[in-house]
């Protein structure tokens, strides 16, 4: 009796459940899970998981894929959002928009997509911080700064 409850808890943990969409299967709609996906069939819609997705050689996703890690051998069309590592195998075909943390591409993979690599920090914040810090710094070898300093120290020389 107690062992049954433990087994149910283990199966309910994020990332422990495995989902498989076999070759010849076609799904239309949104798919969401806390576990690992292996897709060898066709999915038209959105796939979302906080775990890993493997798209096999015969696998096709047309839509949005949001996951932690992805290993793609098949065809993907749409918006791909991978927070961790995206691995493109030699048979992979990617079309659309890609946002990744890390990217690994084997020779032979086709990627006709716009790709953005993110490290978890928004781009605008770092650019604004750099421009603000650049303006506040006084470089010791800046000629304009030396001229201004000399004019303040010796106003009669002008």
From TrEMBL:
InterPro entries: BacA/B (IPR007607)
Lineage top rank: taxon: Bacteria
Region ranges (Disordered): 1-24, 115-158
Basic and acidic residues bias (residue ranges): 1-11, 136-158
Compositionally biased intervals (Polar residues): 123-135
Family recorded in the similarity comment: Belongs to the bactofilin family.
Protein name: Polymer-forming cytoskeletal protein
Species the sequence originates in: Aequorivita lipolytica
